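Researcher: We're teaching a course module on how sequence relates to structure. For the next exercise, students receive a sequence and then see the predicted structure as tokens, so they can try to spot secondary structure elements on their own. Here is the exercise chain.
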Amino acid sequence: DTSSSNVTSIYKISSMSSTLDLLVIRFVMGFSMLVFRSNFNSMLEFHFNTSPKTIGYIMSYNGLVGGFSGILVGQISKFYNHNHAKMLLHFSLILTASILGITFSPSIFFVAVFIAPLAVASAVSRVCVTNLTFHRSRGDEKGMILGLGNSLLSFARMISPALGGVAQEVNVYAPGSIGALIAGIGVLVMVLFPPEREEKKN
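Model: And here is the predicted structure for the students to work with:
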């Protein structure tokens, strides 16, 4: 009946509120990377006058490091004693610093240097926020919460190229600077609303 339907709706809304901070963090950190990457090739070409061949090498190196970083997540998690909240905060800080480092690198060498921590930090952050969301959610809401998170990232993928393009019209450093700023907002959310608060029981 109507009353039971209302109770169910209220229950779902209150359940989602328990993971709202994690959904915001997932969206913000993903959005920061998407904005940064939206004009990455153009930034390399404009700032370092790189050839398409060099850009291809850098993108291949980025993919190689990104693939290898997935292997390291388990070892890093063991080092942190599976404290995903602390991992998320630390590697989000590394991600923010790496975006700034790449954006304002004085040479292509430093771009290659900063790509490695950026790839590792991005992989670790994704795993951490997913695990925290999964464990804090109740058993009957895990799919809904994770699906909502994916939908938010899809929305971020839709608007990030437009934002990155407009930003680059202002300054070649603008997309990277905006990406770092957005990532910094995510770090601030983690500080104000620590992700390590007690998880929901399944």
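Model: If you want an answer key for the exercise: Residues 1-11, 198-202 have pLDDT under 50 and may be disordered. The radius of gyration is 19 Å.
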